[in-house]
Automatic annotation (TrEMBL):
SUPFAM superfamilies: P-loop containing nucleoside triphosphate hydrolases (SSF52540). Keywords: ATP-binding, Nucleotide-binding, Transport. Residues 17-260 form the ABC transporter domain. The keyword Nucleotide-binding applies. GO terms for molecular function: ATP binding. This is ABC transporter ATP-binding protein. CDD domains: ABC_NikE_OppD_transporters (cd03257). Pfam families: ABC_tran, oligo_HPY. Belongs to the ABC transporter superfamily.
Amino acid sequence: MTPTPEEVQPRTDAWLLEIDHLRVSYGRRRRTHTAVDDVTLNVGAGEAVGLVGESGSGKSTIGRAVLGLTASSSGRIRFEDTDITSVPAERRGALTADLQVVFQDPYGSLNPARTISQTLTEPLLTHRAMTAEQARARVQGLLDQVGLPADAANRYPAAFSGGQRQRIAIARALASNPKLVICDEPVSALDLSTQAQILNLLADLRADLGLAYLFIGHNLAVVRNLCDRVVVLYRGQVMETGPAAQVTGHPLHPYTAALVAAAPVADVAAQRERRLARVTVTEPLTVAHSGCPFAGRCPHVEDICRQQRPARVKVGESVVACHLFPSGKGDSHTSGSVDEKV
Ligand SMILES: Nc1ncnc2c1ncn2[C@@H]1O[C@H](COP(=O)(O)OP(=O)(O)OP(=O)(O)O)[C@@H](O)[C@H]1O
C-alpha cells in the first residue's frame, strides 16, 4: 500500500500542526496566482521544522494561512486535532493560544504607544485569565527568560534596539505558554552578531520549554542549525523534505542542491566553486504549468520534466519530488512512491 506523507515523516508524540494539501491563491478569475500549491507538511510536538526557499516561494503565505491571516483556497489545516482551516484570524486566537508567531520586522510588530509591560500583559489576561498581580510577576519572568532587564517593562519600544525588540516579540509569543511558534524570518532584519544571539535564544527556549517551531527562512545554515527537519519550497510546491542534516548536507533535488551551492561559506575557494554552480539558478524562469516547476532552470531537465509533475518519492529518510528519482525504481527499502503528486 502507498504510504501517506505522514507515514514517511518521523512521528513524534503527536502532530501539533497538520497542513494537508494546502493551496492558496491570490487574485481573482484570470489573474489568479497560486502561491502555495498542494503543500502537505506536519510539525510534531517539540519539533523544529524549517521552511526554506527563495523569495516568493510561498513560505510566508503558508505561515499566514496557518495564522488565519490569509484564506486557504483548498486543503486542510489542523492544530492540536482541531480543524482551523476556515476559522477567521480573530476567532483563531481563542482556539489556538498554543500557537504563536514571531514576525520578521521587530520595528513594525510592536505597538509604539504601549509599554512593554502592557504589550506582554495583554495575552496573559486574554488567554490565561491571570489576575493583574500574576500577570506582573509573569512579565518579569518573561523578560528574564529572553535576556532583558526587569526595568524594560516600563519602557516603550522606541527605547530598544532591533535585537532587543525581537526579544520582546519573542517574550510576547511565549506569554501564553504556546506549544508551537511560527518564526517568520525572525532574524532577517538584524545584523549578523544580533542574528546569532537571537538564534541562540530560540534554541535555548526550545530546549527549556519543549517548544515546536515552524521556522521560515532562506538561510540554509541557520535552518540546519536550528531545525530537525527541512521542507524545501519552490514556486509554492514542496521539492524535498527530510532531516535537516540530510537535506542540507546531501541534497537530492537539483533545486535543493542549487540552494545549498548558493549559500555563503567562509572558505574563499569553496565559495568560488559555489558561485560557478549557482549559474543554474540564475537562468531565466519559464513557467511550467503541468510539469516540474523547476524544469526551466534545472541542469538535469528532460522532456518528462516539462510534461508531468513528479511524484513524491521516498529516498532514505527524505522525500523528493523529481523525475531523477522515479517511483518504483531503486532499493525497495529506501525508495517508493509516497503520493500521486507533490
Ligand atoms: N497579498 C498578496 N497578494 C497577491 N500576491 C501575493 C500576496 N502575498 C504574497 N503574494 C505573492 O505570493 C507569492 C509567495 O509570496 P510569499 O511572501 O509567501 O513568499 P516568500 O517565500 O515568503 O517570500 P519572501 O522570502 O520574499 O518573504 C509571491 O509571488 C508573492 O508575490
